[in-house]
Amino acid sequence: MGPHPAVADVRRAVREALAHVEEGALVLAACSGGADSLALSAALAFVAPRMGLRAGLLTVDHRLQPGSAERAETVAGLARGMGLDPVEVLTVTVGTAGGPEAAAREARYAALTAAADRLQAPAVLLGHTRDDQAETVLLGLARGSGLRSLSGMAARSGRCLRPFLHLPRATTVAACQALRLSPWDDPHNVDPRYTRVRVRRHVLPVLEKELGPGVAEALARTARMAREDADALDQWAESAYRNCALSDIGESVTLSAAELAKLPDAVRRRVLRRAAIAAGAPPGALSAAHVLAVDRLVTRWRGQKAVDLPGGLSAVRRYGTLILAISPIP
């Protein structure tokens, strides 16, 4: 008799995600102790040795709740019981920039990346599910931040792999039950102070009720298609940048305004963003409003003044060229 269907699903997902990893390499699961990452860890412990891979686990103690260190050690103990090795507890300090959710995420990913570097692991598995992807798409839609935001999380981003993006959260819960694993329910996952929690507990259920079942699956499918489109546009923009750039030296980029004007809006604005970053603008501070202001120097040229950009940059149009450089532009 074969494994429970949910167990088979999570194992298959992990096996497919690791198909590109060289034999003998160390693969790490990032585990919080919740159902998603616990099912992920158990699947990795089963699949990795059968693929000739070594498997370990990282768990992050954010120190945001009483007893977090003890819970992290409990997760580590479960991992060792599964045969995972090495197993490490990573203790981090969470800042305040960008709000509690963003700060915790930044601290967590930094710790996971540093540990993977130290352990020379080419892959870190994350337990995000189709439901997480749907929530991410809705949050991106609410921010109105464009196609890339709607594309959600990537199944593969550098060394980070997300094998479960096509699986519903119910599958990971069922897998844990079948394997007699007891997930830890993080109180933060039901705390309405967090935007994602409100989306999970209120917004998605209303959509399912009013529009019918399958909303999460449809949103995840939208994310996949949006990512494909965004990747294609980014590749087009990279090629267009090379065609438009008259010079790209140090903290100054000069582009042909005539060549820029030939491009579709979506491609041209990607080129302008790429140029601003190449000239020294901090990517996180460069907003859509900044890019649109520079775009008007190309599409609505009326002899207007330079546009100020983050990082002390200016964008100015002169003699048929667009110059982005540290102020003042000579």
From TrEMBL:
Family: Belongs to the tRNA(Ile)-lysidine synthase family.
Protein name: tRNA(Ile)-lysidine synthase
Catalytic activity, as annotated: cytidine(34) in tRNA(Ile2) + L-lysine + ATP = lysidine(34) in tRNA(Ile2) + AMP + diphosphate + H(+)
Domain characteristics, as noted in the entry: The N-terminal region contains the highly conserved SGGXDS motif, predicted to be a P-loop motif involved in ATP binding.
Swiss-Prot/TrEMBL GO biological process terms: tRNA modification
Residues that hold ATP according to the record: 32-37
Subcellular location: Cytoplasm
Gene3D superfamilies referenced in this protein's UniProt entry, alphabetically: 1.20.59.20, HUPs (3.40.50.620)
Main location: cytoplasm
Domain tRNA(Ile)-lysidine synthase substrate-binding: 255-322
GO cellular component: cytoplasm
Coiled-coil zones: none
Function: Ligates lysine onto the cytidine present at position 34 of the AUA codon-specific tRNA(Ile) that contains the anticodon CAU, in an ATP-dependent manner. Cytidine is converted to lysidine, thus changing the amino acid specificity of the tRNA from methionine to isoleucine.
Gene Ontology terms, MF aspect: ATP binding; tRNA(Ile)-lysidine synthase activity
The tRNA(Ile)-lysidine/2-thiocytidine synthase N-terminal domain, residue ranges: 27-201
Keyword entries, A-Z: ATP-binding, Cytoplasm, Ligase, Nucleotide-binding, tRNA processing
EC number(s) per entry: 6.3.4.19
